[in-house]
Design brief:
Helix content: 25-40%
Radius of gyration: 21 Å
Structural class: alpha+beta
Distance between the termini: 48 Å
Largest sheet: 8 strands, antiparallel
Shape: globular
Number of helices: 11
Length: 342
């Protein structure tokens, strides 16, 4: 089994099962174990991919064993190894842990696993809350706030008597903030900070930007470059794209359509670049959607697409865009392009 060549798509599926097996909900874990066992029996390649993934996880577990089996130090090692600027080491032990982890990864990551690590980076694996491909999850936080995570999303929580901070690492979230005048609720992304007391909004990570959509009340937005009292108030019914060095134009949105999109698991595209639409669809299906971003950037979309049936969504795209070509090489590898017309 170990000598079999593992296709990227199957490796990605094995990684997705691994994520599901670590779900916080015991019922979800039980269902994942049953599904994973059935998946392995479908094909020898599935079993081989599972064996190799388990080997990686076992070696990572050896990092945890250095601290008596507790997950905290291993998690700190993840963060120290991959986000050193955000997590400066305070003593030599985290440095040793990070070095051990880096060595483990250097030894155990074959070429076929590079794709897996791109889809599920260490920050995602170590996140406080996360969802697998095609999963949606709603959780009530310690302060009474509610958060819904879309497919392939991950967040870290930093709650204490002085603060309520949620770090969105990837994906998208819908937040219903419980009012607490003493502790503003802050959502942080790579591009900025969103500060609220009690309100409802969604946050979606994009390549190089964050998309904020306000549904109720208002928030105060600061980009990564802003400090002190600098910032901008965004009101209910408004949407803005946050970049590290500034905000895009504030646009009006239909609040009801946004809420329905979350409720019915839809993608509502209104004059949205096609690559961004494909980014979202790719996050909701196993495997990869491959396309040339520059080639498709000028194609704008006006559509409502089902996120729980991405094959149908892709078909709807080709129906509405005759120049678009979608080729399904396997169920887990889709090529999208727009060939030049003769």
């Amino acid at each position: 089994m170990a000598s079999l060549s593992i296709p990227d798509a199957i490796a990605a599926q094995a990684a997705d099962w691994t994520v599901r097996l670590s779900a916080a909900d015991p019922l979800e874990r039980d269902n994942a174990r049953a599904g994973f066992a059935a998946w392995q029996q479908q094909d020898p390649l599935h079993a081989a991919a599972a064996q190799r993934m388990q080997s990686v996880m076992d070696r990572m577990a050896s990092v945890r064993s250095a601290s008596g089996g507790h997950p905290g130090p291993a998690r700190a090692a993840f963060q120290a190894a991959f986000n050193p600027a955000k997590n400066p080491p305070t003593n030599r032990r985290p440095k040793r842990m990070a070095a051990m982890l880096a060595l483990v990864m250097a030894l155990v990551l074959p070429g076929w696993l590079v794709l897996v690590w791109q889809a599920y980076p260490p920050s995602y694996i170590a996140a406080d809350l996360r969802t697998g491909t095609g999963q949606w999850q709603t959780r009530t936080l310690a302060d009474g706030s509610r958060i819904t995570l879309g497919s392939g999303s991950a967040v870290d929580l930093h709650f204490d008597p002085q603060r309520r901070t949620l770090v969105l690492l990837q994906g998208d979230i819908l937040v219903d903030v419980a009012h607490d005048a003493q502790r503003p609720f802050v959502v942080e992304t790579a591009q900025g900070r969103i500060r609220a007391l009690g309100t409802r909004f969604s946050v979606d990570t994009k390549p190089g930007s964050t998309l904020l959509t306000m549904l109720e009340s208002s928030v105060w937005v600061q980009t990564a470059a802003q400090t002190g009292s600098d910032g901008t108030a965004i009101q209910a019914g408004q949407r803005v794209r946050i970049r590290s060095d500034g905000l895009g134009p504030v646009e009006a949105v239909d609040v009801r359509s946004v809420q329905d999109a979350w409720k019915f698991h839809q993608l509502v595209a209104r004059d949205q670049p096609l690559p961004e639409v494909l980014d979202v669809l790719g996050r909701h299906r196993p495997g990869r959607i491959v396309y040339n971003r520059a080639q498709l950037q000028d194609i704008r979309m006006l559509a409502v697409l089902p996120l729980d049936d991405t094959d149908r969504a892709l078909q709807l795209l080709t129906d509405s865009l005759p120049a678009l070509r979608v080729r399904r090489l396997t169920p887990y590898l889709v090529l999208v392009d727009a060939p030049a017309q003769p």
